[in-house]
Every structure is written in structure tokens, then in C-alpha cells.
Amino acid sequence: MHGYALVELLGELGVRPKGAGNLYRELRALEEQKLITSFWEASQTRGPARRVYRLTARGGRELERLMPVVAMVSSALVEVQARHRTLKASREAAVAAPKAPRTSRAGVAGPTPRRSRRQLQPPA
Asked: Which pTM was predicted?
């Protein structure tokens, strides 16, 4: 797969690399680790040649080794999203709920009467 097709595929999966330069740097790093290989392919049309990337056998084994980790992270992210939605809904419900009127200690609706410091101090 050539670089541009890889960018398109990642976009379809919801991954948007921050600039093509970052993607190509990562591809070079993967190539240095012998996880992928690349070669130049002449264009079918009059355009420039394109670099094509392929997973190596070692890269395939590494991908298989990492898949359980990817599944675990994916599951954790789904759980975080679900908890966030629940928390957000409960906060929105609390804000939307009408507030009960404040009552005084005598059970009368309205503001609680203020007491002076002398009234708040216990008897000596």
C-alpha cells in the first residue's frame, strides 16, 4: 500500500495523522525495525513513482502479539465513554431538576433566619 492510500485508510478508521511528514517518519522507523519493507513502484499513469509499503513476516508476528493489547485498550476506551455519558446525563439531570424551596428550622418555607454569634455560642 502506498503512503497516500494509507492516509486515506487511516482517515476511514477515524485516525487523522498530524501531517503526512509524521506518518512517513513513523513508516521509516517501522522499516528500520524490520517490521515493514518498502520499494518504489512506477506509476501506471504519467505521475511520479510511489513508495509502496508492505508488512514483513516479523511485522505480522508483532501485529498479532499486540492485538490483545489493542483489544484491551479499545475495551477500556469504550468503558470510559460509557461512564462519561452516564456522568454527563446525571449532571444534566441535576441541573435541569427544579430545586426544592429552602425551609427554616421551624419548617417554614423561605430563607433561614440569620443568627448572631451570641445566639450560636453554647451556654456557659
From this structure: 0.61
Task: Say how many C-beta atoms besides its own lie within 10 A of residue 36's C-beta.
Answer: 19
- Residue whose entry in the numeric block shows the C-alpha cell 433561614: 112
Report d(CA 20, CA 18) in Å as an integer.
Answer: 7
Which class for 24: exposed (0-12), middle (13-18), buried (19 or more C-beta within 10 A)?
middle
Residue 67: all three cell numbers together: 492485538
User: Are 2 and 26 in contact, with CB atoms under 8 Å apart?
Assistant: no
The per-residue pLDDT for range 38-89, each reduced to its tens digit, is 999 988 888 888 999 999 999 999 999 999 999 999 999 999 999 999 999 9
The residues near 20 (Cβ < 8 Å, ≥ 6 apart) are: 3, 7
